[in-house]
Fold each of these.
Amino acid sequence: MIKISSNSKLSEKIIIDKFFKKLNFNKIGTYNFENDAAYLNISSKYKTVVTTDTIVENTDFFSNDPPESIAQKILCINLSDISAMGALPKTYTLNISINSKINYHWLKKFTDTLNKLQKKYNIYLLGGDISKSKEISITATIFGEAKLKNIISQNNCNLGDDIWITGNLGNSYLGYSILKNKNFKLENKNLLYFKNKYLYPKPCMFGSKAYKYMNSAKDISDGFFGDLSKILDGKYGARINTKLIPLSDILKKILNKHNPLIRLEDILNWGDDYQLVFTSYKRNREKLLSLSKKNRVKISLVGSVIKKTGIFDDSLQIIKNIHSFDHFS
Amino acid sequence: MIKISSNSKLSEKIIIDKFFKKLNFNKIGTYNFENDAAYLNISSKYKTVVTTDTIVENTDFFSNDPPESIAQKILCINLSDISAMGALPKTYTLNISINSKINYHWLKKFTDTLNKLQKKYNIYLLGGDISKSKEISITATIFGEAKLKNIISQNNCNLGDDIWITGNLGNSYLGYSILKNKNFKLENKNLLYFKNKYLYPKPCMFGSKAYKYMNSAKDISDGFFGDLSKILDGKYGARINTKLIPLSDILKKILNKHNPLIRLEDILNWGDDYQLVFTSYKRNREKLLSLSKKNRVKISLVGSVIKKTGIFDDSLQIIKNIHSFDHFS
């Protein structure tokens, strides 16, 4: 069910046949993209977990961004949501609105990246839609499977829960800062490293491995403070040892030099790393660390859920007043 | 899981709380739109049928079209696809990209229409995403349920099958012609009637009632000839009695006057009525007519599937050569 708007040109049929058809991986339920709809082939033992996100040119990416980056972003931002629910991704639909700037070269790179990521995350394209617009706009809707009892809810943390973060924070923010500020002084190989962290985010898929030991989880898409606030949901607060916030060694060095262009506070207010923040009972520490080792996913214990609302540092000084915290401002 | 892009303004949180939250109808699995994802609450007896479509300003609608019309279009074009698969719609996700022209007044009308249609078609909003763009762009992904054995495939017609059409064709095309051509002479009440048929299409939901008697089905979104060709799939042809094409009485009168602005051929090449074309064994005629009566859905037997490829009239004169037929041109 890859459909084309009636105003489209012939070339768009070729786009489907040449670039998208192979992405169905010959899976049952896709009808080789020749039907009005498709069906999800998810076992009746599981619930289908759904998440959807749109990225738009000039808001979420720029038209001269590499198509590989745009493909990686649209899948990544949805995959991390599926992970945060404790589900395993299975398949996805894609709606792309393209303009005349998009050529075959662009489409080849874009779909080759989708193909590569589909293999990496073991998902296939279920169907979609191609239309025309002035700005490029891409929507992906990803379907995952999880047993109902294992689905992790965002607002289910308990007083005293440990607060964990997967991976490292800030690499994507530093990459973004470099792209925004040409005066950023750093070795060339590091400049490239961080730019790539921003352009090619990798979702942390730990949720489907460790759901048993997570009470609440969220992907860090609005920034650690913002997303932690959503978990705390105005009912609890958090005591965070900011020294334990996981950062890459290079980023630590840069922060220690007190570069005015990058501060820990900015990192903690910035998303785009697509790591997870989750809470867990203290008794689960060993099990989580063992799963972390087994799955080669770095996890860091950064604090705990406390009674007093707000986000506090280790000496209980307020860092963020949640009541006044507003990630939309 | 209604998410907001990080670049958005506070007002968009209000948009969700004020306009969209009520559309979840308090259904389980939506998490009151407060989670990263949602889950489909479809019984394990059924497969989940999925379809998705995007409509974009200046391609599929105009920015000064009534918001009620845009809401009706985005649901209608997806509901008719679910119906063509023989499935019953259950829930949907919505991704809207809006610009500064969209005000509260617009959003109220838009979401009030969604609310009304949700009640009519017994569906609820599962989640979605709001972002910003220059042009308004709206994606809906609709989920229906059907038993695997009852899912109707588009390319499953048999030699000798009857060819049926639901409802009337052409009302939407006439409405479009009126909107495009100010010189169209018609009584005022008729002008309004046809304009509304174009602006407020109604999907034919007969598929989930009559799936047992349908061999193949498709909603008429690319025009009767185009969609019938997809059903025939280059393997068969069709003999159509064009006198039996269902038209409203007013449209028949207009066609009989040989108005140069509207011809039967144009009607048969135009979609947007969102009726179904389906094929069925001859032995099912009585059962289909009985279901048609019971569900108050007009159905018309217009022809049959023949061996020779192409679309022919009743005297076997070629109307459309399928091999050269190209609905993208």
Amino acid sequence: MKSFEYNVYTHMYVGSDFYDQIPVELAKYGKNVLFIYGGGSIKRNGLYDKVISELGGFNVIELSGIEPNPRIEKVREGVEICKTHNIDVLLPVGGGSTVDTAKAIAAGAKYDGDAWDFFSRGPEHKAVGDSLPIVDVLTLAATGTEMNRNAVVSNLGTQEKYGLGGETLLPKASFLDPVNTFTVSKYQTAAGSADILSHLMENFFKRTTGADVQDFVNIALQKAVIKNAYIALVTPEDYDARANLLWASSLALGGIPAGGKPGAWTCHAIEHELSAFYDITHGVGLAIITPRFLNHIIKKDKTATAKIAEYARGVFDINEADDTLAALKGIQLQYETFKKWGIPMTLQEVGIDGKKLREMSEHAVKHGNLEHGDSFVSLTADDVEAILVDSLTESEFH
Amino acid sequence: MKSFEYNVYTHMYVGSDFYDQIPVELAKYGKNVLFIYGGGSIKRNGLYDKVISELGGFNVIELSGIEPNPRIEKVREGVEICKTHNIDVLLPVGGGSTVDTAKAIAAGAKYDGDAWDFFSRGPEHKAVGDSLPIVDVLTLAATGTEMNRNAVVSNLGTQEKYGLGGETLLPKASFLDPVNTFTVSKYQTAAGSADILSHLMENFFKRTTGADVQDFVNIALQKAVIKNAYIALVTPEDYDARANLLWASSLALGGIPAGGKPGAWTCHAIEHELSAFYDITHGVGLAIITPRFLNHIIKKDKTATAKIAEYARGVFDINEADDTLAALKGIQLQYETFKKWGIPMTLQEVGIDGKKLREMSEHAVKHGNLEHGDSFVSLTADDVEAILVDSLTESEFH
């Protein structure tokens, strides 16, 4: 394995009995709180009231209406509020989009220019410096943003969806109450679980050898996600299943699977173009792309096969000595897992036809540095286009 | 799973290229450094010089001679130095005993009474309050103290070996350079690896159900330890094997396997009596006791068998449908693993005869609260004595 640093100081509260710690965590930073949330779901399920009832001693300003695939417009609105009202700490209550919006606001609030500069790939790009502290209450197991330093935001005006990372963006505390995810729909539960698996696979498929701790833990988390996603889809109020999905989502991107295994992510780079062009659900896009990606690289680069076979044997207990056969069986089982979860597994089903595949492929290779970067396998625009063409309709892998 | 908090903010540096970060970490706390180490090994292998060469801008006082099973006398000596010289930060360079000594000194330096009060089970017992910060350089994969809030110290005068825990005792930064463990002897490599496995098993064998993330990660870490201990024993300078053992040792006690799974530890309570009475190597004592403990509880409490079978199938890939048979096969394979590592697997081989078994059993039940506490299986002094009698000579499990 390569040298690495691990420094994840978020105070994680996992369980239903920690609401009284929210004011304790917030009070470390000040009195002026920006309470950020999405739509009405936290009002319908009572979480809004539960959190508000803990905020008696604070000056609370609200910013609502955060959408999935969070938009830069909302970030700008939040930055403005922070500057006007001297906000001390951000309190996003919601899923990954809400927390990611808070991260972008946190950075923007301490910056004089436009917050999109942090995301932009152009000459106006700026690194994140100081930022406001974040304390979050999570309502969806998916992105892992609650325990890392990254965020993703879309600019629909320019059809761009980019990530940013910053040393100061790690949340100070995250509250994971499994009960808050009981009402997550089957579709979002499946999409979120696919997102977690994708994060784990992006970290697993690297060229670094000898990182057994990282890779064995990675496989373990994938097994936990697959087992508990099935349970949560059948029994949405199964506390343990929801708790396992939440904790797995945090750990998947919490630094352990990635430590000592550098390298660019591929499927996320491709999916970000789908979301930027068509605003589809991120986890669904990932589920559609990943099996086709793995199948494509088996054909393109034989040196990738052994690692895919290792994944297949580890996650799906495949007992098959031949690497190529084991890998293909694993890809097929991954595809079937997503299908059984109810994920639409073709681009056509999510409203994407063949028209912009070339344009998105070129964007993905350019923005993700997929051809000349340090990703698992080098991909040209032709490769990505082939993966997307394969993704248009149903597939079988053998 | 039960509710839990996870808050592990130690900055972990894993690799050979982070020595220049030692002064950066120390400087956060002040100029006066207490450099704590054991005997001559860090002088022989060059680590002493390497660390000293980074400490140009600091006032460094040294405390050496820390022994395995660290002694309260050394703690008192360190506390005295801290108070006399206004020490700002502790820099233990060594294995678990050295870091644990530093933790006890860190607590004692901010306390007016005797440092043994933190360990004592008597009316003079004190909880750890404020403490000095610790930055450590680790030279042995074993105790996991580099990433948690606990320490164990012996009082040979009273034949007591007790642990302490304190919110403030988590090291601020830990430097894990695999190269520093190349010279660890086969015996200590095996004993350290057994210690890691024992920590994982103590966390695994709990009554809490539904903690899949914790338990799957636990199994993954055990597999990584078993695989890499074999490699390190054959090829002591295998960087990846040493890195995996170090990182697994930190994660084993770093909060993830234990989160949401409360309950007292059993084998450690028993082993601490062996070490307190006979000063044997901690990991060796654990390796000797654990298979006999598991074998004993299978007979005593049928409700424990399923969890032991889960362990056996997970760690040793045992394909056996019957729980009792799977469990026994797992115990036998665990015993054989320790033997293959070269660990003396009987109490007689480490110089312990039958004379004090009863006394140690009674101490273990009392100090570990094994009969009426929340351990995996309730044990009386008769149970512990039976486990120790079984441990005197060679065993077979079927």
